[in-house]
């Protein structure tokens, strides 16, 4: 600062300094004035020091320092208010930043003591301006302590290079000045001041003020690193370690975790104090450790005792009374204490802040590098920290951790051999500890151990560590001699699986429900493998860590792990208990790692490649190892498919319950023969059970029964999970083989389809996911393409399970599902399906369950044929010229009414035109030859040759007719539904012969004792009337209408007592469309609507029948009737109006009481006046809207 600038600065500072000096003795009255002067001084100093190029000289700093020191000397520090003392320290901090080069060391010492006393609360109320007295002074505010700590940090820290250049000094002068301060501070007579400063800082390390806490930790690091020699560091080691662990763990934090910055600063302090106290270099220099031989000369020194120098004995010189002598016993005791301290930091692995986890990674890597020999017992713990952090989702954490592990384990590292052994030992110990931790529900520890094992496996896949013995160790662990029989059995006992919560019935809105209903599932949609739960693992993260651990083990072990997979699968196939389910789950996870695949539980497009595998293993398509893996996948697929070569009860997981054993034996006897009949030997008399015995044993028997039912439920549940995981294993094998998997579909297709028809939602969902996944990895565009390409495989597998020696009742459902999934493309292959069905019908015609299933298959084939061919077109409607419009209609009615009793006139003979008058044998006219050469008229569409599909459906109908009289009502209903579906496929000339042949049986079904069979028969008649009106018109009026008339009367009476019937204003009908009466009403109305269709106008119908229909069906026009019935009845009356509009007008108008509401017996016959019939009027029927609609549409 130039003289001119110094003068200006002095002029600004002088008034304030003079005022402060005059009020140096604080009183209650001048304290506010002093506070105001200090604020002015602080603002002035800040403005002067921040100005560019401004620097206060030593004389000006001393001039300003004098009034500040006067205030501190003339007043007891404990009596100075916090706000005033805070401003004093702020002013001192500004001065010390520029006075650092010039103040005397004694002034430096006094300032350090003052700061230390305020931070630690050591001001003595009995001495003025001095410290060191007994007792504890005033407890200062956090802000005041922070100001004192900032001043202390400025006193202790060396200026930066920028600050040194700005002050005009050279870098060398800063080093010399700092060395001078260090020598003064570390002298034996002043070292207690530094020690007390550390003690004061540690006392405030758990401050709630974050900025103050970070300042404390930064200053502590500076003191430990620069001001305390390594010979004295062990003395402060216990206190510093204990305090820093408390700060890092946030033990005194009221809520949540400690902040990440505070954790990082605390761990930095911990690293400095441990390395300076017990590091390898320090202990080696003290003679506690010997040099590790690195060359031939070092080996010779070890062999020759004379060549080995004696370690120098470190004695405590009198000049340094604070020096600490390290001994082997101290080293051992300290190492164990540090182990406990570092172990307490394990919860930081789950700290939510990345900076805290990164600090823990840095601490672990430093200790492993520089305490390799002194803290060898700490290696497993430190390695576990690095392994866990190497799997972090944050790259800023995982990358430094991986880099540190690689640098430690590379062959060039001196500690690589010992650390590699520790890693392998850690893997075995962790696998052995997993069962205990899982059973104790320690999810956090389970997740930690699983991540450590996965991290070890990831290290083995790194190029820099590829040739280390990590890979060979994992191969030995999972290889033939790895002892999986020992550690694997204990682990399987803990890995007990359970179905996910919330699994119930099949959701029709799910992807599974869409597929069963024939809709193709999107390949990137909901079709995902359901997630299973581990009974003793609650958190999803722990479950995922276990999965990834087994996958990583399989990936590193490679083909050597196939022996473990085979052992686990052999165990899984031996039963369906808890351990067997765990075995197949574990085998599948290891197989995923071996094959380089991973089944995702979300997007199907991510199910092929495991992103955690390196590219070298993903590309092993032609190597011998890859060939071995593919061979094992083929063998596993065939072996897993054999699990479905069982009877139907075992397939469904229905383990026989002892209580139901007799009933199941009786049911299975009819299907599987006498081989299942149990042999029973009895002796003696049958014991009698009295009422007293029943009363005493009722409670115990109930408990045993409940327990047996629960055990049976658990066995069924485990069997379902077993089948679910078996399908998952097949999917993994399909991912491994890819386009080479289709030849194995002859074995794997039936298990998938068989599981799709399961009543268990989780098995059904897994089968759906497996089918989509197999189709994707095998290269098919859709699941229907896969099934169509392998239709012969599927049909053969189903046929083999419809034999007496290996009958599966659900095989028919599999066949139904197969036809439904393939869709209309199955028609080309339907001939084989139909022949197979009728062969089995001939063989099992007496077994209702099997016949129902086969009939369902035939129905599905007909529905598929219906989707292929266009529905048969009905005859075009030709308007009847007799139906005029306008005012002539009523006049025609009046004319008919006047002459209705006249005698009918004889009709004139019909003129057939000219007749030939030439004798037989007359020579042909040349014109006749020309007529013969003309092309024949086109053949009628009804007489055309049927297509192959129509011929197939016709064959199905003809061969199914005998089952119309089957004893099972369900089968009778299914046959009627089958015939109704065929009406849409077959032309009238093809279906009519079968209907004619079966007509008596169809009529008998209208009198069936099962309402749903009657409804199906009525629906069949309605479909026939709709598509073959001319053929069915006479049959309807002669045979069907009398039955319908009785049904309508009976249904009206029944609806009055039916809970589902809606009773409103005396109108019959149903409130729900799911009732049998509703379906029957709808079928009757559809039949009547069809026979009155304009296409059948040529068929003559008696007016009496038309009148009966018009009168009987009026109630369905009411607004309270279901909208389906109301719409169908409106269509019926519209067709009636086209045939006899006068009758419809008379009936409907009479029902509602006329257009104007006037009602009489018979209104006077005049043109323009309606004829109303009083007995037809129904005042309670709200049908006016429907009548207006019908009359407006029919008479316009």
Summarize the structure.
About 60% of the residues lie in helices and about 0% in strands. The protein is an all-alpha fold.
Shape assignment: elongated
Strand order of the largest sheet: 1-2
Number of helices: 50
Q: What fraction, in percent, of the residue positions are helical?
A: 55-70%
Residue-averaged pLDDT: 78
Residue share in β-strands? under 5%
What Rg, in angstroms, do the CA atoms define? 49 Å
In the predicted model, the low-confidence regions spanning at least 5 consecutive residues are 125-135, 306-318, 502-526, 602-621, 647-681, 871-888, 1156-1170
Main β-sheet description: 2 strands, antiparallel
How many strands? 4
Distance between the termini: 112 Å
Question: What structural class do helix, strand and pairing data support?
Answer: mainly alpha
Can you walk through the features of this model?
- This protein is mainly alpha-helical and 1196 residues long.
- The protein is 62% helix and 1% strand.
- The chain contains 50 helices and 4 strands.
- The strands form 2 sheets. It has a two-stranded antiparallel ribbon with strand order 1-2. A two-stranded antiparallel sheet has the order 3-4.
- The radius of gyration is 49 Å and the shape is elongated.
- 40% of the residues are buried.
- Residues 125-135, 306-318, 502-526, 602-621, 647-681, 871-888 and 1156-1170 have low confidence and may be disordered.
